[in-house]
Request: fold
Amino acid sequence: MKKKMLSLLLAAALLTASGCSNQSNPSPQASSDDAPASQDMSQPDSGQEAPPEKTTFKVAVILHPLNKDEDINNKEIYRLAEEATGVHIEWIPISSADAGDKVNIMLASDLPDAFLGLVGETQIANNMDSFANLAEGDLLKTYAPHVYADYETIHGGLDSLTWPDGSIRSLMTGRQTSYENDAMGIMYMNKAWLDKAGKSIPTTTEEFLDVLRAFRDGDMNGNGDAADEIPFEPSQSDWCSQIMNAANPWGIAGTEASDASAYKMVRDGKVVGTINTPEFRSFLEFSHQMIEEGLLDMESFSQTSEQYYAKLKGGLVGCYYSWTPNSDMSDDAAADYVPVGPIQAPDGPGYVKTGAQDQLAANLTGFAITSQCADIPRLLEWWDYMSSTTELKYISRFGVQGGAWDIDDNGEIYEKIPDGLTDDFTIEDYKYTYAMADYGPLILKSENANVLEDVAWTSWYRIQSVDVVHDYCIPVENQIPTRFVDPEKTAERTFIETELFSYIKNFTATSILEGFDDAAWDAHLEQLEALQYSTWLQWYQDLLDKKF
Reply:
């Protein structure tokens, strides 16, 4: 389907090139006689032009532990791409456990033609000359027009991939956005306890206190001990359960799950502080009230992950934050928990949910061509072919059509459970054996919008839970765009963060557990300035304003 365009480009600029370092000794699989038949939608026009000249590239690839097939070229997407473009890949599979050391050795001595799913921002920043500049001479725009057009449509556009020197050293893999990831940790409440107490899901902080008091006093787990219930259980030991989630009713939220993400917010194009505000003080005072009334677990700031999950599995907790309850306990116990929507504080500006609407979820360094590659345009065309249609992108992500995905009568793509699954061969095994899942070309939000993720309890329940709060997650216009930053500038920020974050964490915990007065609050504001909180906020403002 792209054959004519590819052939014209190759005739104009590529066919006389020598290819990459291993072209002179191609694998027998590169023979056109051995090329498998492709699906109709991806076949070149038969009889119109000669098959493309075969060229072999070496690509180091992350070997996902769920991949049950040792020969990566057996994946349908690579068979189709080879037939259409003439590009054969000699894969260098590297396990995730060995990736760090082996990639660093390659960067120092023996570069492949490209890396797929193996390098990160820091490795590129520290080895910039080892990676091809795809912005030079409009390489990306000329030889990967579908990829280029995709990037122009997303929030942040090509800026997300552009380094401060104007170069582009990598391409995106995975999905542009991930709806189920937008909301981070969601509050879940035990509906069986609510029903026993005769209460409804709370919508205000006062109603929230009323429910928690009922949980505290009602022997909700029915074991005869009215003192062992834990009404509210956040936990600093769990990635999506941290205490700053509880500041959402006061309009304080981060785009990520960590507490530190909520120490700043963007409003009307300005980066503003959150932990020096009256709203933060109100949140601390409310949380201390919960401690005094025995509604919030005092061990939330000190317990281990094992202690936290033991309480959840022991049937002691009425309300907590989670990805989904069934990730923390049995499906039977999890079925009692329901997602909690917005809770409004009367002295706050309005509820905001930790998380970010349509946040860029793609891996910005997923596919990186190295300076070792002698035929960058040809390899770009191979990647562009796989990015040229929605169907090809889904073959790359999930495998052959009709397996883990299909198209309904309305032309909408949906996920499905493929035949042949067993207890030892799950849906995730299938996706990584027959496809690349998160290591394929970028799938745009518009292409992914109608996918029904109903292949597991976790997926559909998570999506239904996100529906409850998604409208309150931080909108795109109030997010700091994702883009690469000079390592020296990053070092400036992280130098401040080490002491600043430690102080904020300790002040938050102490204030909630022990309380504070006006003098302590004033001292807190002074300490923030002493620890360069304003400088830290300005760093993000400069990032937002593209000053570096």
